[in-house]
User: Fold this.
Amino acid sequence: MELICPAGTPASLEAAVEAGADAVYCGFRDETNARNFPGLNFSREELRKGIAFAHRRGVKVLVAINTFARAGAFGLWQEAIDDAVAAGADALILADLATLDYAHRRHPGQRLHVSVQAGAANPDAIRFYAETFGAQRVVLPRVLNVMEIASIVRETSCETEVFVFGGLCVMEEGRCSLSSYATGQSPNMNGVCSPASHVAYSERDGHIVSTLGGFTINSFGKDEPAGYPTLCKGRFATPKGSGYIFEEPVSLDAALMLPALRDAGVTAFKIEGRQRGRAYIAGVVRSFRKILAAIDEGRSPPAVSLAAMAEGQASTVGAYRKGWR
Amino acid sequence: MQLTLGPVLYHWSPERWRDFYYRVADEAQVDAVVVGEAVCSKRAPFKQDHIPAVVERLEAAGKRVLHSSLILISLPRERRQTRELMQSDEAEVEINDLTCLAGLAPRPFAVGPFVNVYNEAAAGFLAERGATRICLPPELPLPAVAAISAAVPKLAIEVFAFGKVPLAISARCYHARAHKLTKDNCRFVCEKDPDGMPVKTLDGAGFLSVNGVQTLSDSCASLLSDIPALRRAGVASLRLSPQDCDMVAVARLFRDVVDGRIESEEAERLLGEIYPDVPFSNGFLRGMAGHIHAGRGGGSLGALR
Assistant:
């Protein structure tokens, strides 16, 4: 079982490698990757150095070029693919038919992973990517339970990678325009969701109100911490009452599900959080390393407290457990 | 420029669903009609029995009929349904997920707005495999529409021109959740909201609509004032997505604007009478936040209601 860790900066890459990652994933500092946040990501030179560093320690580097190419500007995505291959990337993580087709034809030997943003949610879709583009691994969308994952592993020859910790999309990845509806900035086109540039906090009648693109996303009383207004984790009003209509402000923690996911045949466990600092990355990676070591040796996983690191304090195992839907 | 009536995205009662299409067959000035269940596989059995009669009536009226696939396909029965749809000899399918292309023998198909076609290379890839028409994702701005249409001229390009804008799909049913139920035990509560369940902000502003596992906008797309620009961009067809209003009248209005019988400002005023109390939006096409309603040639902000 591989542990795949995020790196938003060269410092985080080094931290993840030293903390025991089997592979690190990262992206270029532009709209070609789905974590296109200010102050994050890698220049060409930084990627070359990062890959060299990781390879010296026997750690792989996976390069995410996983937004959908802008019409009329495909050259930017082609360049990103060419440069990542030239830098020695162990795999490219791609979502767009355009980028998959280009990488497969231009760099036939290159290992390709289907990004979670492709939303490949069943064995037939995965087979399509494997047969058409030679994809060797698929990152599964966070809409599947463990039984469905097991059946995907049984029915396809593609390796599977699943998210086990960090931010949690409750909508199928790659098919969500909620952020661009409110702000004009979307994960698919701009590599951002609920961008900080469109967030505002104000005080109203003793409450802290958070808005995104002018829409109220939440309102917090005096004793509540005012969380970040991620659109799908806001409080809204319906005829059936007000509250967290889509999902509470929780993040994913599937540490307890690791044995079940391993038994399902999953190849790799992925930690979300390229936007997080190196201390977070080192802490989470070390904790998961301990849990995986215990599972490998047949011991029961140690009770490692990851709670302090979870983004929205509370955590969930999301769709992995059947009742979530 | 043609008009296509998209699939009914909401869970209407089987009789209402059937009668809607009968009226469309008899009265609506649309060139193509997409039938079938795109959103939730649990709803499909309700319409199954009516589909043959609906298709026959639409075809007899000279309308091209397309059969929609599901958007999110994960359960075994959903895969089976998809395979049966793709293997059917007669039906022209509008695929809404790439699952449909697995093991597909070469045949023409249409691509719905839920397949991520953001650029000319993806459109060209699908055209090579048999796609003849593509309804582009609603969030695409006009320059992207124009670039795709210019680069792949053999494809008929369609844009989402009327209806609440589909924004997201999930494994979780938010209708069931609002009713304190789960998806497996949903009691089909989504049937209570034939135009979607309104989701407002805590200060009462309209924002989104919930339709089972799907989330749509509160505002209704109206590209009436963009029709000349869409024509210049090479768009071949406008998609009208059924809402709980007189869709025959909506189609007539779009037809009148396309044919130059009526000005777009007047048409949008009339559209507001056909589908009252719902704000219009065209921000996505203008490269702005999707909820914005921009006037002719402009970037003026619409009122946030």
